[in-house]
Automatic annotation (TrEMBL):
It is an enzyme of class 2 (transferase). This is O-methyltransferase. PANTHER family: PUTATIVE (AFU_ORTHOLOGUE AFUA_6G01830)-RELATED (PTHR43167). It comes from Flavobacterium quisquiliarum. Keywords: Methyltransferase, S-adenosyl-L-methionine, Transferase. One of its GO terms (molecular function) is methyltransferase activity. Its EC number is 2.1.1.-. GO terms for biological process: methylation.
């Protein structure tokens, strides 16, 4: 990411963080991906030369900006899913203002509904949605990992360890998959097929 763009996006992150500090209800908060995690995933997109990336949980589009920028370099496409229309439109606004909208498809729907219909075309799937549904998502997520070399990245696995422990156990007990936790940001879980 070019330095000027990075600084502008980091200013936006600080604004979102300040806004979150004034909100009491967790659901009302933006709950953005930490910049160091966003940058790490962007590097993975570039090194894999990813063409198709899926983001589950757009929120206001902070992480979407990072992924879109990386995919511009690989001539790839990002599909991002958000259940709340207002958040989808806010993400669209930021993507447009940063000139990063061109390679992004924003979809407003329930992640579960999207996953049921999705085809295994994604090299990277980033999961940062409501954690209480992750176990429910797994049956369809693992079908998406049928594409050779596909990688599932799950956020908040260290910061919210208790919320995701059953989900992680479910994956650990599936002999078809291997996992690793990266101690960056709020903790990222990497999942791929054996």
């Amino acid at each position: 990411m070019e330095q000027k763009l990075k600084l502008e996006i980091l200013q936006l992150y600080n604004q979102f963080k300040e806004e979150d500090g004034k909100k009491v209800d967790r659901i009302e908060k933006w709950r953005n991906l930490e910049p160091e995690s966003a940058e790490f995933i962007s590097i993975l997109i570039r090194t894999q030369q990813s063409k198709n990336v899926l983001e589950l949980g757009t929120s206001n589009g902070f992480s979407t900006l990072w992924f879109s920028d990386a995919l511009k370099r690989t001539n790839g496409k990002l599909v991002t899913i958000e259940i709340e229309a207002k958040r989808t439109e806010l993400a669209r606004k930021y993507l447009t203002s940063f000139k990063l909208i061109e390679n992004v498809e924003l979809i407003t729907t329930d992640v579960k509904d999207f996953l049921i219909e999705a085809d295994p075309v994604f090299e990277i799937i980033f999961l940062d949605a409501e954690r209480k549904y992750y176990i429910e998502y797994w049956i369809n997520l693992k079908k998406l990992l049928d594409k050779k070399g596909s990688l599932l990245i799950v956020d908040n696995v260290l910061s919210h360890k208790d919320d995701v422990s059953e989900f992680i156990s479910l994956i650990e007990n599936d002999e078809n998959f291997i996992i690793s936790t990266v101690n960056i940001g709020a903790g990222l879980l990497l999942v791929t097929k054996q």
